[in-house]
Each structure stands twice: as C-alpha cells, then as structure tokens.
C-alpha cells in the first residue's frame, strides 16, 4: 500500500512547499518513505514552474531543509492519484472543491480533503488555517514553518492509525 498526500495552497510558493518538505522529513524520520509519498500544488497558476518564494526557501534552509519543488497547478488527475488532498486555508479548500467538481464531477469528501491545521495540537484561538505569509516578514514564514512542522507529526500519527502502517 502506498499513500499519496498532496498539500495545496494558492500559489504553491509559500505554505504548501514547506508543508510538503516538513512532512517528507517526518515520514523519512519514521522510516515510512516506502509507504507514504507527498507533493504540493497550487489552486492558481500564478507561479507555475517557479521555485518556492525565496523567503520560504531561506526559512526552510534555516531548519535544514532544501526546497527544490517547482510550482504546479492542481489538476483533475490529482483527484485520482492522491489519497489525501490537504488545504492550507478555507479559500483553497473552496477552490479545491470547485476544481474537483469541474474536473471529475464531484466534490471531495471530508475524509480525504481537509484543512491541514486540523492536525495542529497548538491551535491558537481555534484558527484552523495556516496563515499566508506572502505579504508578511520573516516572522510570518517562521510561524508557518512551526505550524506545518507540528501538523506533520500528528498527521503521520493519524495515517499510521487509520491505515495500520
């Protein structure tokens, strides 16, 4: 069994690439890379083919991560390839559902398409979204890193329990 996870944000240059890479590192640390794979995508085509935002890459490097992902847009095929599609915020969740309805004729179930912050054990004021750091400063990029890094561990626990890994 191979589980495939897709992390999604607006442009695939800030939140979803760092979510992808922190998750990949956590998967590798647990020796699960043969049963769990991940990727990331955008709901909009603003940055297709680009590397993640330089500020995202700088933050990732400060945590020992190298981001080499090239931005891509969510496609209809993704709904049949990935077992879980994980949105960074409500806006992107709505866009995922719209793309799904247009591409394959149905919306995604809450069992396989949800907000990543659902797995954050340190929810502040019950905010379920990973904030978009694009218009912010380095502190905002660090906050996103901390959130997605926490979510990675809890999400893996969920996958282990649900799929008996």
Automatic annotation (TrEMBL):
For this UniProt record, the keywords arranged alphabetically read as follows:
Hydrolase, Protein phosphatase
Q: Which Gene3D superfamilies match?
A: 3.40.50.2300
Record GO terms (molecular function): protein tyrosine phosphatase activity
SMART domains, per database record: LMWPc
Positions of the catalytic residues: 9 (nucleophile), 15, 132 (proton donor)
One short Pfam name that applies is: LMWPc
The record's annotation in InterPro entries points to: LMW_PTPase (IPR050438), Ptyr_pPase (IPR023485), Ptyr_pPase_sf (IPR036196), Tyr_phospatase_low_mol_wt (IPR017867)
Question: EC number(s) in its UniProt entry?
Answer: 3.1.3.48
Top-level taxon of origin: Bacteria
- Phosphotyrosine protein phosphatase I domain residues are 3-158
EC supergroup of this enzyme? hydrolase
Instruction: Tell me the PANTHER family matching this sequence.
Output: LOW MOLECULAR WEIGHT PHOSPHOTYROSINE PROTEIN PHOSPHATASE (PTHR11717:SF7), LOW MOLECULAR WEIGHT PROTEIN TYROSINE PHOSPHATASE (PTHR11717)
> Could you say which protein family the record assigns here?
Belongs to the low molecular weight phosphotyrosine protein phosphatase family.
The molecule here is called: protein-tyrosine-phosphatase
Q: What is the lineage of its organism?
A: Bacteria, Pseudomonadati, Bacteroidota, Cytophagia, Cytophagales
């Amino acid at each position: 069994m191979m589980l495939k996870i897709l992390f999604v944000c607006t442009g695939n240059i800030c939140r979803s690439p760092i979510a992808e890479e922190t998750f990949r590192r956590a998967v590798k640390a647990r020796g699960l890379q043969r049963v769990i794979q991940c990727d990331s995508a955008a709901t909009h085509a603003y940055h297709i083919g680009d590397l993640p935002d330089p500020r995202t890459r700088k933050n990732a490097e400060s945590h020992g991560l190298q981001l080499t992902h090239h931005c891509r847009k969510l496609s209809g095929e993704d709904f049949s390839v990935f077992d879980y599609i994980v949105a960074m915020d409500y806006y992107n969740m709505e866009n995922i559902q719209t793309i799904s309805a247009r591409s394959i004729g149905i919306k995604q179930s809450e069992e396989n398409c949800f907000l990543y912050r659902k797995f954050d054990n340190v929810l502040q004021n019950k905010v379920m979204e990973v904030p978009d750091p694009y218009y912010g400063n380095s502190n905002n990029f660090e906050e996103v890193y901390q959130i997605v890094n926490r979510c990675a561990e809890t999400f893996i626990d969920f996958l282990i329990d649900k799929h008996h890994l």
